[in-house]
Design brief:
single chain, 395 residues, alpha/beta, Spore Coat Polysaccharide Biosynthesis Protein SpsA, Chain A, 8-stranded mixed sheet, two-stranded antiparallel ribbon, 15 helices, 46% helix, 13% strand, globular, binds 2-acetamido-2-deoxy-beta-D-glucopyranose
């Protein structure tokens, strides 16, 4: 009897101690918990229980003259006739920065090679690079700080001269006169939809992509042709972020203050790494940019706000990646659309992913069986994030 009693007491002591430990842990980690759990719970309840976002449209609407201030930058480089008299299937904007010359070169000689696409895939795809003006100080890893005001001026001029030369050679840079920085990405988004509206309104689809993604052009062309045949409208496809909360941590690159966006969740949007819209959606986004306050500097979120205000919502395609990099595997190459984070390996990936043997190895009953098993192993590992979702194995 006595022994039993002590046992219970010990049990309770352990319980009490554990509770204290958990509580103090929670107190210590509250900030973290608030960021990653509470924020998401709040945002999910907003997204799934309320889901009206009516305030957003109202409070983002501004007079047209003021909205114009986000778009009336002068073109430094432009190609007015890029699309004229052509039956363009896809107008593909690559968001790039003045310094990323190497990335542009790699894209031109791999997935963004227009003449390859025309000859081999028999499709008209226009690949243009959108960028702003070089800043006064070098950005990126290779930059060295200039010495004084005159040096900064010349840095800017040197980069711009190089861009002009690059454009004379390739004819594919679309540049506006705003400083090319992370916090000006929304201006770059507006630049794209305005350019599409004025210079290429007949393109069947419009795509936006980062300059460090890989696009499996043959797969994408086949897919978009099929969508065109079905006459899709209201089409916006990519990796969808649903019920994403604004990040309130000041150290984050994606920090957004309450004054800029007071609600607990963003309207659904696709990851900026790469997404496609149909012609009608591109026009609607253009119309939205004529009325909305574009001072929120996360471009894909602003895209979500524009689309929401026009009644367009995004759809998920499992083989469009968000931040993630696709596993290297034939069965993935057979289905992939985009994959993020490719710089050095882009030439090699282009070669292996478009090799005709990929189709041979993945077709037929055995090939499909093998690929289902391989994709299950690659995509459905627990604690494995950032690549394609597990359901890609069954798609
Ligand atoms: C693009 O493709 C064409 C045809 O396949 C090829 O002749 C050309 O060299 C390629 N361009 C680049 C920059 O690799
Ligand atoms: C965006 O570009 C404008 C125009 O060049 C410039 O004045 C502004 O400082 C830039 N904003 C940011 C956050 O870099
Ligand atoms: C746009 O929003 C910002 C805050 O995000 C605000 O400071 C600015 O006044 C707004 N512009 C207009 C024209 O309402």
């Amino acid at each position: 009897m006595f022994l039993n009693f002590r046992k219970i007491r010990r049990c309770q002591r352990v319980q009490l101690l554990t509770m204290c430990l958990v509580l103090s842990l929670m107190m210590v980690c509250w900030e973290q918990l608030d960021q990653s759990v509470v924020n998401h719970v709040k945002s999910y309840s907003y997204r799934y229980l309320d889901n009206r976002f009516t305030f957003i449209k109202e409070s983002f609407t501004i007079p047209q003259e003021e909205a114009m201030s986000f778009s009336n930058y002068r073109y430094l480089l432009d190609h007015r006739d890029k699309c004229t008299n052509q039956d363009v299937l896809l107008l593909l904007f690559v968001k790039t920065s003045p310094e990323n010359t190497k990335r542009r070169k790699a894209i031109r000689s791999t997935w963004g090679n227009e003449s390859y696409i025309r000859q081999t895939l028999r499709a008209d795809v226009k690949v243009v690079f959108v960028l702003g003006a070089p800043g006064t100080t070098p950005e990126g890893p290779s930059g060295t700080k200039p010495a004084g005001p005159s040096a900064t001026k010349s840095h800017r001029a040197i980069i711009q001269d190089e861009l002009v030369r690059e454009d004379q050679l390739n004819g594919d840079l679309i540049q506006q006169d705003f400083t090319d920085t992370f916090h000006n990405l929304t201006l770059k988004l507006i630049q794209q939809f305005h350019w599409a509206h004025t210079r290429c309104p007949h393109a069947r689809f419009v795509m936006t992509a980062d300059d460090d993604i890989f696009v499996h052009m043959p797969n994408l062309v086949i897919y978009l042709r099929d969508m065109a045949r079905r006459d899709v409208t209201d089409f916006w496809i990519g990796r969808v972020h649903r019920g994403a909360p604004p990040i309130r941590n000041k150290d984050s690159k994606y920090y957004v203050p309450y004054e800029m966006y007071p609600w607990s969740t963003y309207p659904d949007y696709t990851a900026g790494a790469g997404y496609v819209v149909s012609r009608d959606v591109a026009e609607k986004i253009y119309q939205a940019t004529l009325k909305l306050n574009a001072s929120i500097y996360i471009d894909d979120v602003f895209m979500g706000i524009c689309a929401h205000s026009m009644g367009v919502s995004p759809q998920e395609h499992v083989y469009f990646s968000g931040e993630g990099k696709a596993p290297y595997h034939v069965c993935i190459y057979d289905e992939m659309m985009t994959s993020h984070g490719h710089i050095e390996d882009i030439y090699e990936l282009w070669k292996v992913a478009t090799d005709p043997r990929v189709k041979q190895r993945t077709s037929g009953f055995l090939g499909r069986l093998y690929c289902t098993a391989a994709k299950l192993a690659l995509l459905c590992k627990p604690y494995h994030f950032n690549t394609y979702p597990c359901k890609g194995a069954f798609a």
